[in-house]
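Friendly challenge for the regulars: who can give me the structure tokens for this chain first? No prize, just bragging rights.
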Amino acid sequence: MHTRAIGNAAEERGCDYLRSRGLRIIDRNVYNRFGEIDIIAIQGNVLRFVEVKSARSYEQAVHNITPAKLSKLNRAIQSYLQQKRLNLDYCVDALIVWEEGIEWIENITLG
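First reply, four minutes later:
Bragging rights claimed.
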């Protein structure tokens, strides 16, 4: 399976996981000049920007969330919020997807 196909499958599993926990998916694979936002969901009145990382093991996936990746993601989020003229509370989460499971890490640090 190609890398993009693996990523798409992980994102689909991630969306199913978030939906099962009561979140509503409002957008996926949002690209702007700063990068990509994998999943945008809403829970109550809070937007959740979700970075999906997948690998064969949990450790491999979680180590792919680097300070540089978080910085790029933050710039993409700020651009998205300005473009959509949104003034909502938001947080940044990560979904770690590997063969044996999924872990949702809420409110990851941006800096």
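The mean pLDDT is 92. The longest helix spans residues 3-20. Your move, everyone else.
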